[in-house]
Design goal:
The protein has 307 residues and is α+β, with helices and mostly antiparallel strands. It folds into two domains: 15-183, no CATH class; 210-294. It contains three helices and twelve strands. The protein has helices at residues 43-55, 111-142, 155-183, and strands spanning 15-18, 28-38, 67-81, 84-103, 210-219, 226-236, 243-249, 252-259, 262-266, 269-276, 279-284, 290-294. The strands form two sheets. Strands 5-6-7-8-9-10-11-12 form an eight-stranded antiparallel beta barrel. A four-stranded mixed beta sheet has the order 1-3-4-2. The longest helix has 32 residues, at 111-142. It is elongated and about 75 Å long.
């Protein structure tokens, strides 16, 4: 059964038109999270559990791992002057409703299966971040519309033009969201399948110390990729997934610390997972550089999927 992701954005516009000026803060972001309880301890059981939830989300036929909807409300203030009626300030709010999986049987699963789930969940979180970023950008632009919408002869005309501009902004980001979803196959091109074994770059409980050579790829923009022969050495606290991996890429030495299998730091700076061609790479959270390690020389292009 293939991986797939369902996501969509919903436009809602509650517009209030007020003839006053006031100071307005940053856009309001309201996030409502809910969870699907996923049962099972094997790949087949987990996928069947997700599939049962997806079957209720007609007309979608594929497994829906995560769903996000968003809507924007706004209020703007106006004044009348010699040049006509003009907007003076805007207050906007974006509301996200996210549904994500919650695996409730993971304590009974094997360390390998838990590591696969962490890898998949991190990729789901990244995909969700891509989708919700459109709503965040849209609401920020709407809060600045009073600087761009031209004054009108009447305030009724101003209201009409302002709302048209706000809706155009939302439609633009909804279009971009659809383009992202199509480019990554609604997430299926970047979400690791639970059946795929854990790579050497992803520590699991009781991972042994290992030192190997391979190929490293580094990129900060996902377009310009540096590819070199490199080495990596993984050392773990005995019986745990708390590990350090040292990469030697040319003259660069990169030390990544993992806590319970999750990237914690990159040369003492914050780090997290990134997913290229379904492989769990590591990303420096500050400068956005991504490092992927391959035991064999990789082929093909990276997926350009980060927001």
């Amino acid at each position: 059964m293939p991986n797939a992701i369902l996501s969509q954005s919903i436009l809602s516009a509650l517009v209030v038109f007020i003839p006053l000026q006031m100071a307005v803060a940053e856009p309001i972001v309201d996030t409502k999270n809910s969870y699907l309880d996923i049962r099972g301890t094997t790949v087949e059981e987990i996928k069947n559990s997700v599939g049962r939830h997806a079957a209720m989300q007609k007309p979608f036929k594929k497994i829906a791992w995560v769903k996000s909807t968003w809507g924007v409300d706004w209020t703007f203030w106006w004044r009348e002057g010699p040049e006509g009626c003009y907007a003076t300030a805007v207050e906007a709010k974006v509301t996200f409703e996210n549904i994500t999986p919650n695996w409730i049987d993971q304590a009974q699963a094997t360390p390998e299966m838990r590591a696969r789930w962490r890898r998949t969940k991190a990729a789901l979180d990244l995909y969700l971040q891509q989708i919700v970023s459109g709503g965040e950008k849209a609401v920020k632009e709407i809060e600045q519309l009073h600087r761009r919408v031209e004054p009108q002869k009447t305030c009724n005309e101003l209201e009409l033009n302002f709302n048209r501009a706000a809706n155009r902004t939302i439609n633009l980001y909804r279009k971009r969201e659809r383009e992202i979803a199509n480019r990554v196959g609604h997430g299926s091109n970047q979400i690791p399948d639970l059946a795929d074994p854990i790579s050497i770059q992803t520590p699991v409980a009781a991972s042994p110390t290992v030192e190997v050579g391979g190929w490293c790829e580094l990129s900060s923009d996902l377009e310009n990729v540096r590819q070199e022969i490199c080495g990596m050495k993984r050392t773990c606290v005995e019986g745990t997934a708390n590990c350090t991996i040292q990469f030697e890429v040319g003259d660069d030495r990169i030390l990544v610390e993992y806590e319970d299998g999750e990237p914690l730091s990159w040369n003492e700076e914050p780090a997290g997972y990134a997913f290229i061609n379904r492989s769990s790479c590591v990303q420096n959270s500050l400068d956005k550089t991504i490092l992927c390690f391959w035991e064999q020389k990789p082929e093909g292009n990276w997926l350009f999927h980060l927001p």
